[in-house]
Give the backbone structure.
Amino acid sequence: MKYKRVTAMQLGTPDVLQITEHELQAPEKGKVRIRVLAASVSRPDVSARSGNSLYRGTPLAKKTPFVPGYAIIGDVDAIGEGVTGVTVGDRVGVLTVIGGYSEYVYWRSDRLIPVPATVDPAEAVTLILNYLVAYQTLHRSAKVKPGEKALIIGASGGIGTALLQLGKLANLQLYGIASGEKLPAISNMGAVPIDYRTQDFVTFMRAAEPDGIDVVVDGMMRLNYIQGGLSLLRRGGRMVSYGEPAGLGTLFRILLLVLRHKFGPSGKSFQLYGTSTYFLFDPKPYVEDWAALFQLLETGRIQPVIAQRFPLLEAAKANALLESGSVIGNVVLVSDLLSSGGGS
Ligand SMILES: NC(=O)c1ccc[n+]([C@@H]2O[C@H](COP(=O)([O-])OP(=O)(O)OC[C@H]3O[C@@H](n4cnc5c(N)ncnc54)[C@H](OP(=O)(O)O)[C@@H]3O)[C@@H](O)[C@H]2O)c1
């Protein structure tokens, strides 16, 4: 039997994404096969497909062909030798990083995220990457406390909208930076909106909070936002940047700022956040945070903003929409099993 994936045949615009056919095989030892119900379409997918500027010209540059797709939700449909604790039919999530735009995914059985069967897989898949980044930057990096004042830079995106919802739940007083037509959505999510096209955020924030703010969470990773954000923090304030730097030169200058705030007398902290520690170090904090997020979703305390759902194999159109800059929240790919009722 054959199945389909969406493969980036070369680096470039969304039309490099082509549907390819593959032979369905039994999972290898220690792995399971997952029938994908939903896959996220995220900025790191776009960046990998278009040729991440950070890695361009280095040995880390992505080799083609490859299947993008950072996160999936699906049902286990076959089990390899030696796999215990997972059964056929279990609903699971995976932080794939690469490979999610596919009807089937093969994955290590010890890296599956349990997913309640009661939640919508399209909403659930936003928790695997975007909500995870938001939750961990707030609670593990910035260690926010109720009543604190926080500025979110990049508030209208997949991670930004998650930051606003989770920030509200943590009883933060929120400010959110985005662009013109998206500002009403920022207000509706309980934050004071700031338009980066028409307002200088530092001037705005100094007038609104003359004593400084407690936390800045930044998805832009640009020096002007980082320097401006740091200048707004009170003593004891924390800034976390999770975005992708434009190039190695910018990354180097940002790392110098991290060191200066770690060892210098500023009284403020500045950290960078990345999900790569899940693969490099202890996965336990991730497992705990996904469990907390799924509980919030199951009890209706978070409601992921989904701008549009596309059929799983229409990843090229979904990438083009995300890149258009018109999206508020998340873009998700869904299997036809969901529309036919087979995935619930
Ligand atoms: N560290 C990690 O582990 C990790 C994980 C996932 C993603 N990321 C990175 O995080 C970043 C954001 O991801 P995302 O999924 O939230 O992206 P997204 O959904 O595309 O949202 C991008 C956000 O950036 C805002 N923005 C664009 N240009 C801006 C500007 N000049 N000034 C201020 N804001 C601007 C957008 O605002 P408007 O749309 O209103 O213009 C929007 O709120 C990306 O760089 C991504 O690669 C990092």
Notes: The longest helix spans residues 121-141. The longest strand covers residues 31-41.
